[in-house]
Amino acid sequence: MKKVLVTGALGQIGSELVVKLRDVYGENNVIASGRSENVTTHGLYEQVDVTDPNQIFQAVKKHNVDWVVHLAAILSAVGENKPSAAYNVNMGGLFNILEVAREEGCGVFTPSSIAAFGPDTPKVNTPQDTIQRPTTMYGVTKVAGELLCDYYYKRFGVDTRGVRFPGLISYETLPGGGTTDYAVHIYYEALKEKKFTCPLDKNTYMDMMYMPDALDAIVKLMEADPSKLIHRNAFNIASMSFCPEDIYSSIKKIIPDFTMNYDVNSVLQNIANSWPDSLDDSAARAEWGWDPKYNLDSMTKDMLDKLKIKLNL
């Protein structure tokens, strides 16, 4: 049974992934970690700042870790305000993880993102292998991270794997400063206020995914036959592509009096404009059987149902 260390375990993905992995691998085989020292959480937890290689090494050694799922990162919108911090955490942290994995024989799963693409990338049905010239620090670190993981696999034999996540939508944990965050906040405001002010233009298409599909993708790729993995560290995965008007219409089917207006944030809009509208995920489907379960309307129904319970509405 795999022993898995999850960095960034208190974030949007990590907080749900730890629960998922403990269901798969067992409560005592999954170690959550983060920078916070005093955390009230179920199960095993270690304080790990990924910019400190000694803390990573100690956690891996202590728990005899087989796989590190490396999620600790500074996201796109925050990264544009703090580019130096984004570089130090995203690149320095990944390098430290890969070095410990090389020394200790661990596998490493670390996600890339649609932010790894840029304005020169084909926007519709973006190919698996295509030009990547991002215009954000977050995107730069994601491209460099894909290449670094490829290098550690080819040069040192570290079993590195990853996907390019689109925007992720979840009812469990609020997002942490990404360009696609509006697609989470809109559901909260639809239920609480019956109105929402969108920071992106109404025709801004981006790839999105419901969190249950994202968690399944991580487990499925970690369990995939390595002999069939050609791309390894940068699989496009897709589930749905929509613009703000689409998600607004989907919510109105359930909440007819919901209204939305627009106050476009130029920084977020420029980032969104540089990203693909939709991704070609045929490589992931062929190499490890990627098969998402949710579309926009089924996600909307589940989000609203779950949030009503969470918010006691």
SSE topology:
Layout: E1 4-7, H1 12-25, E2 30-34, E3 45-47, H2 53-63, E4 67-70, H3 76-81, H4 83-104, E5 107-109, E6 112-113, H5 137-156, E7 160-161, E8 163-165, E9 167-169, H6 182-192, E10 195-198, E11 206-210, H7 211-222, E12 235-236, E13 240-242, H8 244-252, E14 259-262, H9 266-273, H10 282-288, H11 296-310
Parallel strand pairs: 1-2, 1-4, 2-3, 4-5, 5-7, 6-8, 8-12, 9-11, 10-14
Antiparallel strand pairs: 11-13
Give a brief description:
The chain is α/β, with parallel strands linked by helices. It has helices at residues 12-25, 53-63, 76-81, 83-104, 137-156, 182-192, 211-222, 244-252, 266-273, 282-288, 296-310, and strands at residues 4-7, 30-34, 45-47, 67-70, 107-109, 112-113, 160-161, 163-165, 167-169, 195-198, 206-210, 235-236, 240-242, 259-262.
How would you describe this structure to a colleague?
There is one protein chain. With 313 residues, this protein is an alpha/beta fold. The protein starts with a strand and ends with a helix. It contains 11 helices and 14 strands. The radius of gyration is 19 Å and the shape is globular. The mean pLDDT is 95. It folds into 2 domains: 4-167 and 209-236, Rossmann fold; 172-208 and 241-275 and 294-310, UDP-galactose 4-epimerase, domain 1 (Alpha-Beta Complex), CATH 3.90.25. The strands form 4 sheets. The protein has a 6-stranded parallel sheet with strand order 3-2-1-4-5-7, with helices on both faces.
Question: Which key features would you list for this structure?
Answer:
single chain; UDP-galactose 4-epimerase, domain 1; 11 helices; 313 residues; six-stranded parallel sheet; Rossmann fold; alpha/beta
